[in-house]
Amino acid sequence: MKIFDNIQDFIEYEKGLKGSIGFVPTMGALHNGHLSLIQNSINDNDITIVSIFINPTQFLEGEDLDKYPKRLEADKKICSLAGVDALFIPNTDEIYSKIEPTILAPSQKAYILEGYKRPGHFDGVLRVVLKLLNIVSPTRAYFGKKDAQQLYLIKNMVSSLFLHVEIVACEIVRENDGLALSSRNIYLNQDERQRALKISKSLKIASKAMMKNEFNSQNLKRLMKESIDDLEIEYIEVVDRNFDKIDNIELNNSIILVAAKVGSTRLIDNIWV
Ligand code: AMP
Fold first, then answer.
1. pLDDT at 175 over 90
2. What's residue 208's pLDDT?
3. In this predicted structure, what is the pLDDT of residue 229?
4. Ligand 1: does its nearest atom lie under 6 Å from the Cβ of 180?
5. Residue 108, pLDDT above cutoff 90
6. Shortest-distance Cα residue to atom 19 of ligand 1
7. Quick check: CB of 23 below 6 Å from ligand 1?
8. Is the beta carbon of 143 within 6 A of some atom in ligand 1?
9. pTM value > 0.90
10. pLDDT tens digits, residue range 110-135?
């Protein structure tokens, strides 16, 4: 596996490549969720490239930018064993310049839900994803459904800016007990880890209610709230696949989303129905 920390060297390497390129952008501290994106890419493409970049512009003041988990040596091993062709680890100073045009995420979809408590977060996400897509020029890029709003906004950017890349949405990977994998799970102590299960359990409660023909958003949200009332819920919402709130579940076009704080750790989860 080749490793690049310099954009120009990476671009030179890419010039010599033939065939389709799959790209998996990450912030590192890789887990099985990331690995499933990588495996999808390896299955679909001739070459797979993974990036690790903790993007400062998507963190707000006071968020966990400085203490975001870093496990570079382990990440290199994971990528190499998985069969990744190249690992791209650019520097912040090279990615961002002092004077540059910026991209703003559409406010009506980027300042709700995740963006309501984290205003400007998606501006930073789209800024870096656009830069990475331009550097890597992949055939396909892989993103997790776990970050459903991010996935929607990236797809929207790709179609509205006519970018030449196919965005592939990958299923959420969970622990055996249901907890969605996240790099931030390592912040949880044993007690918090146990309480965090209530988030995925609330989504299971919604699934069970739907099996009994409960499709009303308010009723589903109430059931879910009751089941996680001892966590600090940031939102529980039912949206369609364009992130418009809906009064009733539309099968094959809906997402039920939860964000909650367990201690000081903010976790998100969702199901696509
Ligand atoms: P991150 O390193 O947290 O920025 O995540 C990089 C990519 O991995 C994003 O597209 C995430 O949506 C995806 N991802 C993170 N956790 C999971 C998971 N549990 N299952 C599937 N994809 C995930």
1. yes
2. 98
3. 82
4. yes
5. yes
6. 181
7. no
8. yes
9. yes
10. 999 999 999 999 999 999 999 999 99
Compute, in angstroms, the gap from residue 45 CA to the centroid of ligand 1: 19
Report residue 47 as tokens. Answer: 């070459």
Domains of the chain and CATH, by start: 2-170 (3.40.50.620), 183-272 (3.30.1300.10)
Q: Which atom of ligand 1 is nearest to the CA of 37?
A: 22
Tell me which residue has its CA closest to atom 17 in ligand 1. Answer: 33
Query: How many CA atoms within 13 Å lie on the side-chain side of 16?
Result: 6
CA of 54 to the centre of ligand 1 (A): 13
32 CA to centre of ligand 1 in angstroms: 9
Q: What pLDDT, in 10s, does the model give residues 189-225? A: 999 999 999 999 999 999 999 999 999 999 999 999 9
Ligand 1 nearest-atom number relative to CA 146 = 12
Whether residue 162 is predicted with pLDDT greater than 90 in this model: the reply is yes
31 carries an active-site annotation: no
- SS3 sequence of the chain: CEEECCHHHHHHHHHCCCCCEEEEEECCCCCHHHHHHHHHHHHHCCEEEEEECCCHHHCCCCCCCCCCCCCHHHHHHHHHHHCCCEEECCCHHHHCCCCCCCCCCCHHHHCCCHHHHCCCHHHHHHHHHHHHHHHHCCCEEEEEHHHHHHHHHHHHHHHHCCCCCEEEEECCCECCCCCECCHHHHHCCHHHHHHHHHHHHHHHHHHHHHHCCCCEHHHHHHHHHHHCCCCEEEEEEEEECCCCECCECCCCCEEEEEEEEECCEEEEEEEEC
27 C-alpha to ligand 1 centroid (Å): 9
